[in-house]
Amino acid sequence: MLRLEARPEPSRAMVLLTPIIAVVATMIAGGILFAILGNNPFTAIRIIFWDPLFNDMVASYTRPQLLVKATPLILMAIGLSFGFRANVWNIGAEGQFIMGAVVGGGTALALYPLESALVFPLIIIMGGLGGFLWAMIPAILKIRFNANEILVSLMLVYVAAQFLAAMVTGPMKSPVGMGFPVSRNFNEYQSAFNAELLSNTGLHFGVLVMMGVVIVGYIFLTRHIFGFQIRVSGQSARASKFAGVNPHTTVALCLGISGALAGLAGLFEVTGPAGKLSTNFPLGYGFTAIIVAFLGRLHPVGILLAGLLMALTYIGGELAQFQMSIPAAAIQVFQGMLLFFLLGVDILVNFRLRWASTKEAR
Amino acid sequence: MNLIKTLLAGAAVATGLAGAAFAEEKLKVGFIYIGPPGDMGWTYEHDQGRKAIVEALGDKVETTYVENVPESADSERVMTQMALSGHKLIFATSFNYMDHVMNVAKKFPDVKFEHATGFKRADNVSTYSARFYEGRAVIGHIAGHMTKTNTIGYIASYPIPEVIRGINSAYLAAKAVNPEVKFKVVWAYTWFDPGKEADAANALIEQGADVIMQHTDSTAPMSEMKKHEGIIGFGQASDMGQFAPNPRVSSIIDNWAPYYVERTQAMLDGTWESTDTWHGIKEGMVEIGEMTEAIPAEVRASAQELADKLASGEVHAFTGPINKQDGSAWLAEGETADDGTLAGMSFYVEGIEAEIPN
Amino acid sequence: MDLSSISPVTLIVSLMAASTPILLAALGELIVEKSGVLNLGVEGMMIIGAVCGFIAAVTTGSPWLGFLFGAICGAAVSMIFAVLTQYLMANQVATGLGLTMFGLGLASLLGHSYTGINPPLFSQIHIPVLSDLPVVGRIVFGHDPMIYFSLALTFAIWYFLTRTRGGLVLRAVGESHDAAHALGYKVIRIRMLAIAFGGACAGLGGAYLSLVRVPQWAEGMTAGAGWIALAIVVFASWKPGRAIIGAYLFGGVTVLQLNLQAAGLAISPAYLSMTPYLATIIVLVIMASDKKRQSLNAPASLGKTFFAST
């Protein structure tokens, strides 16, 4: 009978090997799914994983688009990963993402049509602040009243979405939008527009910030006292007390950082790729980011790769939809499978499979 | 930067040639949908239009679609991918795709775009929409006759001109046949949330409404009406015929098929031009679904007459004298509303006792 | 505005129907969390229950079989979560979120050809005389059988948790899996059962949505109900009785805000739509600030992975 045996230390080889095993397993299971639906599984897999990167018709466009799609996911996931390591569960990044966009974007709309080089830095700060303050609500309620932050932050997602709806049907509604609940388009406002830095690459300022955050996050986590503190807090309350870590500070810091990064992600998204505030602005990036954080094993470099992989399945999925008429739902199931396999095979990092007699297993 | 542009253009040319050689110059037509074709409402009807193209033009075209495309950068990316992979005509079937359509259109001058319900156009971007308010007038007429409590409930989505126009049009037509009629409006702030729509229908019924109109896309309000005695309603966007003859007594159907076939044919003929289309009952873009036996014969006849007159242009849904809600004059006796005012309508007409949220 | 047009009786009747799907899902999740497992996939299991229940009811013509099949499928899909988190020790938060994504997609695939169909009617029970009593008749005797079932289930879960040995074992496992393991309890097996039960309840809630409340199948029809169910568990501080209060309060505020609008209250619907969530946060804070009680009820091992090293 098979049994699990704890490895004395995590296997380095498996850290690298498991994602490959998972992707291959997903290709097989997904291929079966596509075959059942009546599509050629090999073509489908090729379109999803290969074409966005190497197809000469679309890849020159889709390669940079991977970064664009992945940027908000990675930014948020890195922020969340600190909290998750410290057992601070911010499930409401989606709400902080929305509030960053509303506060930062709203500031820009208020300043319109003032053209100044200071506008963009200002709205970036306001965006981060919006997300930060929204995340401070669960932080303060947790510290002061011991209210569960998973729930408060989750409830605040819905509040933020309704607040956004109130804003775009009211004060932030575009005066030139024919009465539709949409804000002014940011590409009409040069000072606030998060433009492409190189044309036809999709690369915008947020992508650069994201890359910076990956590097800073890596340094924080591995070289800085803060990284040590959150890891200690995550292990046990007693241990962190001995290490002189104030649990309240940890809660505030973890929620604050993840909130601010989510706010930034929202701001870059609304002033750039999305282009405007509308009731359809929230797309669930905040929830997908949680998945990305875990797929990346809560490590900045892992998160970077996980975010890109996630983006690849989105973009490849779109290609598969219109080239092969595979329904969107099948792509969603496929993404779910990928996630399950990645999470499932992770066990091989810390454990090894051993054949053992039934007696021994007892 | 220029290098990238050149590469992009080169790739486009190369693949365009290759594509042509393989596909025997089939015209590739792409659709992006805001929801799934199975929503039995808005997207369902657009997909029916797509199927009509295939039926009418057969081998000369190849249609593709992507469903559930959010009105975000995602839509821009999907359209760009379509353009890069050889689509020459792209239908974007939701309002908020607008700026993304414009962005992509700028990059691909050779690809033609058709944007539903929008108002921004370019040399290669047309817009089209339907005069749904004409249909609202017809069902408003029926509602005015049918209500016994003189209370008509209205499930609205978002306070946008199209929805406000519909409420006004239905109200005026109902009031014309029943001066006692009152409208109660619930804003659901969603286009599609079956649970919430059912709750909204229920709330309206509880408060005395016996005729329910909806400007949201699910069939949940119909199911809710079915649970109560003597409540009637109207299909929205698609026929919702599975609820006939009661509670669904008629419907407003968006019929995009003739327009889609016509525009695709124009592409094949090389006569496509940027246009702004706003079609109504006359052109068949708005259809009134079958009126069931639940409606008395004379009301069916008068409703049909109204529909015919709207089609012939003899009657306009907004004909003066009409005051705005605050009592100020809008249209003088015999004056009809111009399309510009209708397109941006953001006020209620006199007599509606509700407020537009903002 | 005319508030007198809102009838408290009809309001109560409709809020009970509106709350039942989330109550059922919340009761299931309560048992899961009492066993020390946090399954964030409620939304995914609910929608699987909604589509499978709908398909079964339409195919067989019996809503009862629909409920049964919805519950079975909810439990079946929860087993993905169970195997990943219990045997392969995957992170519960991520796996739960993944289950939601997977469930939403799979449900759309399964329900593809079932849109626009009416399910068989599931009628309210009508007891002569009693159901016709003024006020009481409609509130107490005028519902469909599933509402009574949800109330009975609440009581049964309360009884199970507080009065039976099984409940004691379940709580012990949720409190400290290592201690429970040392006492000889099969931690993983108990948790697998709890997760399956949670999946069945969520599936049942979903089936109620597609067979009674809406009643239709539509993609994404759960529209966040699963997340609310999760909130209600904590809101109820893991007590079944309070889960009823939480679910009805939430359903009540939702129904009330639509009624207020219909009565002509001129506040932006967006602000009104926030109220159920804000109310939940406020009650949460009030309950949580009573630190002693909160800590007594919260399962100490919630969300932690168990590995039997011996």
Automatic annotation (TrEMBL), chain A:
Listed transmembrane segments: 12-37, 66-84, 96-114, 120-141, 150-168, 203-221, 242-265, 277-296, 303-322, 328-349
Instruction: List GO terms (cellular component aspect).
Output: plasma membrane
Keywords noted in UniProt: Cell membrane, Membrane, Transmembrane, Transmembrane helix
- How does this protein lie in the membrane? Multi-pass membrane protein
- Note the Pfam families from the entry: BPD_transp_2
Q: What is its main location?
A: membrane
The molecular function GO annotations come to: transmembrane transporter activity
Name its cellular compartments: Cell membrane
User: What is the designated name of this protein?
Assistant: ABC transporter permease
Q: Which organism is it from?
A: Neptunicoccus cionae
The record lists the lineage as:
Bacteria, Pseudomonadati, Pseudomonadota, Alphaproteobacteria, Rhodobacterales
From TrEMBL, chain B:
What is the protein named?
A: BMP family ABC transporter substrate-binding protein
The yes or no answer to whether the keyword Transmembrane helix is present is no
Enumerate the InterPro entries for this protein: ABC-Purine-Binding (IPR052910), PnrA-like (IPR003760)
Renumbered to this chain, the signal peptide range is 1-23
Q: Which UniProt keywords apply?
A: Signal
Domain ABC transporter substrate-binding protein PnrA-like as annotated: residue spans: 27-305
Q: Pfam families annotated for this entry? A: Bmp
State any GO CC term: plasma membrane
Q: From which domain of life does this come?
A: Bacteria
TrEMBL record, chain C:
Q: Where in the cell is it found?
A: Cell membrane
Indicate how the chain sits in the lipid bilayer.
Answer: Multi-pass membrane protein
What name does the UniProt record give this protein?
A: ABC transporter permease
Q: What is its main location?
A: membrane
Tell me which species this is from. Neptunicoccus cionae
- InterPro entries per UniProt: ABC_transp_permease
Mention one GO molecular function.
transmembrane transporter activity
Q: Which CDD domains match?
A: TM_PBP1_transp_TpRbsC_like
Could you tell me which Pfam families the record lists for this protein?
BPD_transp_2 (PF02653)
- Whether Transmembrane helix counts among this entry's keywords is yes
Task: Report the GO terms under cellular component.
Answer: plasma membrane
Provide this UniProt record's keywords sorted from A to Z: Cell membrane, Membrane, Transmembrane, Transmembrane helix
**Transmembrane segment boundaries:** 6-25, 37-58, 64-84, 96-115, 135-161, 192-211, 217-238, 245-264, 270-288
